[in-house]
């Protein structure tokens, strides 16, 4: 792991993070204390139950946010990419990480110690509001995840998982240049189902020309059709009357 200084004022990733609207003084204060680092695919930024020591801003790469499973497999809450903040959902009474963050690719990040970030936060009303907004987004995503697991069919869950991956990876259907590498087990852990069910549904979606993939690599996803499936508005041809 390498560590180096990095300036928030000139960072392009700032425009897709909670720091986007912060004033120059806040950005200068953060830049003065934060460090940049990197981890390789498969390494963890932190693990569920670890004490929270600071705040992470993801600059490049993708991570799986996971909970320990009860049956030997983790539950992937989400995939996240550049601009994501991690470590912010804690306070004195809850000072441990509620989930793990595992690199799904090489990841570059910035880090600032928690006590310093708290001091900066106290002096920036804009940053406080941005953190609050992010907490509300996190809560909404958690509620949606719970509802999906409880009420959606396997096909709907897998469609939703593919949509989440496409969003994080910035997929643009017009370009048809979507090149990601995801194993069936990762998709299953995100959808809350099994690898066998994922393989079955992916074959159905491929036969319906809604996705295109080779082995672990996806290069096409029909966003509109998968959105309809996720909402329960489009069933498999084999189940239609």
Task: Give the gist of this structure.
Helix content is 37%, strand content 21%. It has seven helices and eleven strands.
* Oligomerization: single chain
Strand order of the largest sheet: 1-8-3-6
* Helix-strand makeup class: alpha+beta
Q: Would you identify the regions where 5 or more consecutive residues have pLDDT less than 50?
A: none
Strand content: 15-25%
**Rg result:** 19 Å
Instruction: Give the beta-strand count.
Output: 11
Shape: elongated
Helix content: 25-40%
What is the makeup of the main sheet?
Answer: 4 strands, antiparallel
Report how far apart the termini are: 57 Å
How are helices and strands ordered from N to C? HEEEEEEEEHHHEHHEEH
Number of helices: 7
Mean pLDDT: 85
Structure, described:
With 241 residues, the chain is α+β, with helices and mostly antiparallel strands. It contains seven helices and eleven strands. Strands 1-8-3-6 form a four-stranded antiparallel beta sheet. A hairpin with a 7-residue loop joins strand 4 and strand 5 (75-80). The longest helix has 27 residues, at 125-151. The protein is elongated, with a radius of gyration of 19 Å. It starts with 23 loop residues before the first helix and ends in an 11-residue tail after the last helix. The mean pLDDT is 85.
